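anyone else get weird line breaks when pasting these?? whatever heres mine. first is seq + tokens for prot A
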Amino acid sequence: MVTAVPQSPAEAAATATRHPIYVAGEWEESDDLLPVTNPYDGSTVGVTFNATPDQVERAIVGAERAFKTMRGMPTYEKVALLRALAAEMKSRRDEVARTIALEAGKPIKDAEVETDRGVFTLETAAEEAKRIDGELIPLDLLPSSKGRFGVVRRFGIGPISGISPFNFPLNLALHKIAPALAAGNSIVLKPPSLDPLTMLLFAEMCDAAGVPKGAVSILPMSRELGDVLVEDDRFKLLSFTGSPDVGWKMKARAGKKQVVLELGGNAGVIVDEDADLEYAANRVKTGAFAYAGQVCISVQRVFVHEKVYAEFRDRLVEQTATIVSGDPLDRATDIGPMIDDKAAARTQEWIDVAVREGARVLIGGKAAGRFFQPTVIENADPASFVCSREAFAPLVTIFPVKSFGEAVARTNDSVYGLQAGVFTNNLERAMTAWERIEAGGVIVNDIPTYRIDHMPYGGVKDSGLSREGLRYAIEDMTEPRLMVMNRLESQAVTLD
């Protein structure tokens, strides 16, 4: 029997598959290797490269050049291009999903869902490209404007910079690329350094589908070099998905360009006294623990009417106990590891502090390497980190409330406002929640973790600025331009 000798990180990187980066339609390497490791077992998934300043500059120049092509591209060609990208992704579904599972630690069944959503996002962008319309405005409202009318049409805004996060390495990036192409723009994307290989696979699809050179560049890069995407005035819009602390600082440095921020939150759920408790508990379990809680709209705070609190709590704990942790490639796995050791250690620290302050852990609460047990907490101080900050971890806090009004007020007691969920069979209370909850979306009889890719998605307060969702992103990525026509009486055609 031969015992294998473990490879050092350098040896593993040297023998791993190399993935060139996509610079204005060209495949290139650099001297700055970027190994990508599997969060589950630490193995090397592949090696790519951090872009150099020169490569970023050539990507920007390529985007400027490609914008001249994209803005003149007729609608039917943009539709065909996006459909071709969707077809490429559909044909490589298994490869894309496996890559997501390996580099992001996402359970394979969830990675397949993300891949299918990516296809849907591209297909929907193709449809929305057909619906970028304008309006006709009568201008002869004063005698001085006699014979005049206006036509408003939307035009692509120009080169776009995009920065996408690790938790949905495919679909959150496509929410920047797909509407950019549909609107007739070009884009330079910085994918996450922890799992960039998925979008480099997409770059291969761009090549195969015939995307004009320079219209899409996909460049892993250091955070310092990424400042160019924020500050360079040649970009007309910055689209960033990530943490609030980073996002708002970017906005302050972005200059005159438009900025779209999707920054996460600590989503609240209300469980009314007349709710279906078994259904609500099952959905909260899904919303709190999917992808180990590393979701911007993961359920973090649940406010339950005191009449049903004990029953809901027990059902949620019972449901949580059924969750299977393990290898992301095993179809029996419900949740895999957290993205890195730092994330698991931070979660443990936050929970330990909450317990010292009086919180009670009903189930879970412990880390084992990068795995963290699904955790349900009650009696936490609302000011503690597990309640007041974005945990981005498999934990949920639950609280009894005396009334629906109190639940709404406590949901709003947050610096965030991305989405909220409300379980109730009372239409008036559902309408009140919609009107009073300070969030970008209120999901009735489901969790705030619900999203379909054509709906408007984004938040208020510290959760962000503007909206994603194909049509809504296209509005930010285009600008209305007016043409005024003056019918000169001296040139009027006589029909007599």
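and prot B, same format (seq, then tokens)
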Amino acid sequence: MLTVLFITFFVLLLINIPIAFALGIAAAMTLAFDSTLPLNSIVTRAFVGVDSFTLLAIPFFIIAGELMNACGITERIVAFSRTLVGHIRGGLAHVTIVSNMFFSGISGSATADASALGSMMIPAMKKNGFDADYAVAVNSSASAMGPIIPPSIMMVIYGSIANVSIAQLFLGGFLPGLMVALGLMLMAYFIARKRNYPAPPRSELPPILPAFRDALWALAMPVIILGGIFSGVFTATEAGVIAVAYATIVGTFVYRILTFRLIGKLLVDAAVTTAAAMFLIAMATSFAWLLAWAGFGSAALGILGQISTNPTIAVLLILVFILILGLFIEGIPVLIIFTPVLLPVIQGLGIDPVYFGVVLVMAVVIGSVTPPVGILTYICCSIAGLTISQAFRGLLPFCAVLIAVLIAVAVFPGLVMTIPNLVGH
């Protein structure tokens, strides 16, 4: 069964069938060759995969991101970030990284960050004398913070599948997300010195206070959302509704940009994005169910047990496997497919599912940066007018930073669990 499933899936990927359809067709082909299970099992499992109250958070966070982006939030966050770090050598690179860190607390999506901020920062960096491959590398790697820093759509998906506290997952992502930001800034500074990139003196930058005041409504959104979740006022799913209401009020009455016509268009765009995401989740759930039925989890546990019974070594081996998969498969399908089959493995080794969820999301999102299938790099290359091969050289040091932070977090679980344990959620 596993042979038919994997061969069919990878053949479909090689002929450029969209991944959601490749997952569904591979599952159907497998059941057609194996009469043990009825073919309509795919439909049943697909429905079960999306029939979750927790997953309602996804469309609401998508809508909130669309609304906030339409309000000019991107420009305000970039302007504020420029006052903070624009004077450091390679200034626009640091502005990009800090802006992504702030924007991650609003969108929860790496692709949204790459599209919104990349379309602004990549042309600006090129215009100010930065090499195009450097601009792509900074923007694509910085957008990887989107699913790590809360709120995170990927963590919502993992929490729904693994039945663990999404609030704890959000808390666990804080320190790793900050480590990624710091690591990327250090690498950006090192390369900027090596390539002699300039930075404007602080005297040429606008003052911090007016920029902060202008961005305050945007920066308050993640504080309200996360504060409400962590204080127990509302759940992560209900937080999505609060985010939409907040974005609508700010856009309509504070920034006075949103109109009924614009809101209608944004709702349609969000509906299309949500439908694509839910279809992908449905097909990946069917695929994952077949993997579990065929005993993939038990086989993986047996292999890991033969190599090492040390939980840290086991986690590192799993992450290597996920990083290799990320070279060929998009992030969310990897997360949905392998979470249910890896959960029994980590439980058998006594690994905390919250800690594992954070490092798994980190590994999956790194796969969205690394070529040849890194969707974040594709988005940024498209904006910069580069091919993946032209951007590859500049991307390597930043990918190394992402992987180094991942290894540090995997080896030292306290980097994930300290804040959740302190808060007690």
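btw re prot B: The chain is about 80% helix and 0% strand. The chain has one domain: 40-423.
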